[in-house]
Amino acid sequence: MRTQLELLWELQKIDLGLKSIKEEKDRYPKEMNKLDEKQKVERERIEKEREKIESLEKTRRQKEGQLNLEQEKIKRAEGKMSEVKTNKEYQALLSEIDAIKEANSRIEEEILRIMDEIDEVKRDLSKREKDVGATLEKIEAERKKLQEKMARDEKVWDGQMERREILSKQIESKLVKLYNTLKEKRQGVGVVSVKHETCQGCFVNVPPQMFIEVQKNNALVRCPHCNRILYWEGDRNAR
């Protein structure tokens, strides 16, 4: 029975390791999604700045087009001045030209303001692109690190699954069946060690005589409280 218990204890440790790896494997897609989301947010920040510049450039072009049209109006009005016949018409034409020039002055001021804003946004964008570039590099480094860990875990998983299959064949079938039943009922733990006369599964003291039997590892002993199989992995000479 000693050999059977030792194999069963090793099987339990393998199963706990596999459980931990599975939890990590289940977590990987979430971590990858988080990294994807971070990348998306950073790229959207840059895109918004570029769209803002494009919008300002479009507004500037519209203002410049409007300014050109107004200047053409001035030229046409000035061309009519030689054709006017009365002082009233002349004064009306002058007023029209002055009004257009005043409106043009405001348009020019708007164009200058827009150009200043474009320059400022471009400076901010340049800095932000560098910051985002650095952030994206960090994200890619995290992604690579995560992928490497996934590959390592997958390799360990395959090795442990192979070892588990070998162990399962070496352990008596009725013992494997009992272990699997306990494992399903007890959160993946069917075999536990005993330390200081305490079951490490439910942390309840076992009777002194039972503790002596557990230390021998010569018989199948189960915790009277949680029903798990008890195993002694301490100093076997201390009995």
Structural notes for this entry:
- Helix content is 77%, strand content 4%.
- It is mainly α and 239 residues long.
- The protein folds into two domains: 148 residues, Helix Hairpins (Orthogonal Bundle), CATH 1.10.287.1490; 58 residues, no CATH class.
- A three-stranded mixed sheet has the order 2-1-3.
- Strand 1 and strand 2 form a beta hairpin.
Give me the strand/helix succession: HHHEEHE
Q: What is the CATH class of the largest domain? A: Mainly Alpha
Number of helices: 4
CA radius of gyration is 41 Å
Indicate the percent of residues in helices. Answer: over 70%
Bin the strand percentage.
under 5%
Query: What is the general shape?
Result: rod-shaped
The CATH level-2 architecture of the largest domain is identified as Orthogonal Bundle
The main sheet comes to: 3 strands, mixed
Tell me, rounded to a whole number, the average pLDDT.
89
Strand segment tally: 3
Q: Total domains, how many?
A: 2
Quick take:
The protein is mainly alpha-helical and 239 residues long. The protein contains 4 helices and 3 strands.
Highlighted features:
239 residues, mainly alpha, Helix Hairpins, three-stranded mixed β-sheet, 4 helices, 77% helix
Please write out the topology.
Layout: H1 2-80, H2 87-170, H3 173-185, E1 191-195, E2 198-199, H4 208-216, E3 229-231
Parallel strand pairs: 1-3
Antiparallel strand pairs: 1-2
Helix pairs in contact: 1-2
